[in-house]
Amino acid sequence: MKLKIEQSDDCSDIEFIIKCKTIDSELSKLIEKIRLYGFALQGKKNDITSLISPEDIFYFESTDGRTYIYREKDVFECELKLYEIEERLGSVSFVRINKATILNLHKLNGFKTQMNGKLTALLVNGEKLEVNRHYVPEMKKRLAEMGGLK
Amino acid sequence: MKLIKNCIINTVYVFSVLSVVFGILCVSDILESMPYEDIVFILLLMSAATSLFTTIREQFLPISSGIKHIIDIAGCVIIIFAIGYSVGWLSFNSLYLLLITGTIIIVYLLVWLITWLGAKHDEDDLNNLLHKNHHN
Asked: Were A93 and a residue from A105, A121, A125, A138 both cysteine, which residue would form a disulfide, CB within 3.0 to 4.6 Å?
């Protein structure tokens, strides 16, 4: 693989050009990462709007018709609906784990089965989220696909 | 908090159903010898016991398939029969009650075991995939 970087004062915007014979799964993931470059979501907290990078987001949760962005220690309100977030970030490391939650798979520490047969996702910050088993096949597929992302 | 809320909702729900039963029983001869306060107390006891059963079932066996209704209805009928039997409203061989209760418990445990094993299988698969990702 050849990597060519051109740095110049004439460049007003960053431009990526990928030359390849076929797009394999690894390249496809790289393209997705590039697409996310510079992408940020607007989150509101105490009437202050901030731009939040998807990499910092642990999960999205919808409660009472409102969507919230959860970072490691703080929570922001988001104007987007959960399905809109899924459309924008669903192709990267974000996956729905129950009707009201979209999880960043990079923030995942493991899974644990509860005595009542429910599956729980354990996050790196110690939080626990309930996983609906209806979404497990998609999670397995996504985890299998993103082998080289971490 | 959710548990208490569900329990209260179930109690109200079951009590309204039992009130209909009470209305039917009132026109029969069975309850003539018993004070109304006692009857209401027994019906309340039946409501609370059945709602407690369904709440516990939902807590420990939160299945979404139709089998939960079979377990709930069977369990509630057994509870109503057991209370009705103990207060003298019903008379039958207690062995039948014991046998049916045992069957319900076995079905309950089997469904729980199947659900738990399924979740455990998913847990192992997901943890393996995650483990591979961590190593990559």
From this structure: A105
Name the closest residue on chain A to residue B135, using Cα atoms. Answer: A150
Secondary structure of residue A148 in the 3-state scheme? coil
Q: Which of B111, B129, B122, B6 is nearest to B69 (CA)?
A: B111
What's the rounded Cα separation, in Å, for the pair B81 and B89?
A: 9
Q: Which residues of B touch A136 (CB under 8 A)?
A: 122, 126
Interface confidence: ipTM more than 0.85: no
pLDDT tens track of chain B, all 136 residues?
666 776 776 676 677 666 666 666 665 666 667 777 887 788 888 888 888 888 888 777 776 666 777 778 788 888 888 888 888 777 777 787 788 878 878 887 888 888 889 899 999 999 998 888 766 5
First to last CA, chain A: 20
Q: Is the separation of the CB atoms in A82 and A72 below 8 Å?
A: no
CB B123 within 8 A of CB A113: yes
How does DSSP assign B51-117, residue by residue? Answer: HHHHHHHHHH----STHHHHHHHHHHHHHHHHHHHHTTS----HHHHHHHHHHHHHHHHHHHHHHHH
Query: Residue B133: its chain A contacts at CB < 8 A?
Result: 105, 143, 146-147, 149-150
Chain pair A-B, CB pairs under 8 angstroms:
61
Instruction: Write out the two tokens for B38.
Output: 């006692």
Tokens standing for B52? 């407690």
Cα of first residue to Cα of last residue in chain B, in angstroms, is 43
